[in-house]
Amino acid sequence: MSAPLSNGPERQSFTCGPGNHCDRAIGSCMWRCGRRGVPVLWIGDIASSGMHAPLYACDDCTAGLDALVWAWARHRDGLAPPDAAVDGCGCG
Questions:
Q1: How do residues 31-41 score in pLDDT, each as one tens digit?
Q2: Cα 73 to Cα 80: distance, rounded to the nearest angstrom
Q3: How many Å apart are CA 84 and CA 82, to the nearest integer?
Q4: Residues 6+ apart with CB under 8 A from 30
Q5: Fewer Cβ neighbours under 10 Å: the N or C end of the chain?
Q6: Is 92 exposed, middle or buried (0-12, 13-18, 19+ CB in 10 A)?
Q7: Phi/psi of residue 44, nearest 5 degrees
Q8: Could you give the CA distance from residue 35 to residue 61 in angstroms, rounded to a whole number?
């Protein structure tokens, strides 16, 4: 059984067309920034301690994730040197 999350996106329809983000909903970014009431995109599910929850991110945070994916791909293909953001968290 699942329950709605208080910070999950609200149900809202968007007009789809060129340049529109029709796959977005209005809600809270659950990735990094935590902004509320912004267009968010479902980027997958997250699992922790045997529990699962949907993960939504705003355009700014998904752009950061996209940059990490491209940096990793360039590194994997031998086109760029390793980067702390690609090879590890750089936390320390």
A1: 889 999 999 98
A2: 9
A3: 7
A4: 7, 40, 55, 56, 57
A5: N
A6: exposed
A7: 135, -175
A8: 10
